[in-house]
Amino acid sequence: MRFNLWHSLKISMTIIGTMIGAGFASGREIWEFFGSYGAGSSPSVLLATLLLFAASVVILKISWKYKTQHYSEVLAQVLGPRLARVFDYLVMLFLLTSTLVMVAGSGATFQEWNGSFMLGVLVMTGAVILILLFDLKGLMSMNAAMIPVMVTVLVVVCLQFLQNGGWLFSIEPRNPGSFPVWPSAITYTAFNLISLLAVLSTMGKQIRHPAEIWVSGGVSSLCLGLLASLYNYSLLKAESLVSQYEIPLFALVRDYSPIWVFSISLVLWMAIYTTAVSNVHGISFRLSENLPFPSWVVGSVVMLALVPLTRLGFTTLVTFLYPLYGVLNLFILTMVLLYPFMNEK
């Protein structure tokens, strides 16, 4: 089939939507993994961009070549059948708990808007189920509609902040002689890999030409890299204020009108939503292989089952669950990046 540029862009926006979760959009991931290191963080952003590009291309190539239906089939190619069976359950647990964090994050966002925590949870649950009804095409169309809005708002916020405060400023590296910055780029990429694996592994039959793999990987990585660099630069300029905010993004909009602040909060909710949809999409495709129900039914049941668990609270879930998956994510990232060399051998 012929190369389709628009289809490539839709895949790239799905990658961006998966990566721009609440952590990225809020600035917390950007600050913790990059900005907190000071001037030395810029090359680390570039390294993370290159790693993201390589991982996306490898996963999409495997999915396209073997027409994979879900992440377990990609793991079988990368890790081998035996090891893949073990990691299959670990990845499933990660996706479930990560989705739980996202749904609880929606509840926390509604609380910030003086609303009900449970209302936020139910709105997120209903919105995710709605997209599941339209399968992979619904996921890609949703990202194609929402990602340009999210990226535009974040770019405008950063540019406006830099224009008001002056573009040029000096940055002193912090903690000279301490740990190097580059491992943080690897950790950041690994941190987001599982959600990416979950959604890209389902696209094998959607890719119409091998060039779409390179274009979608390149466009998404370039967009995320430029946005992360701009975001990081802005946060460095506002570093004296970042510690005062749980969400660093609000340090850039402290002088904005309440309407603007609400709009940015809505973008944060959208970021949570796009990542949650990717996670549940991956879960539903994996489970539906062994169940006599369509994927949207499986995904809907999963979402409804998670609702009672959100009462554990957003902060508690993040603090306890995320560190557990560090080794898992790093190992899978390493094997994904080594796959082309091992496969050729």
Automatic annotation (TrEMBL):
It comes from the Bacteria. Keywords: Membrane, Transmembrane, Transmembrane helix. The keyword Transferase does not apply. The keyword Transmembrane helix applies. The chain crosses the membrane at residues 7-25, 45-64, 85-105, 117-136, 143-162, 182-201, 213-233, 259-281, 293-314, 320-341. This is Putative membrane protein YkvI. InterPro entries: YkvI-like. It comes from Melghirimyces profundicolus. PANTHER family: CONSERVED MEMBRANE PROTEIN, MEMBRANE PROTEIN.
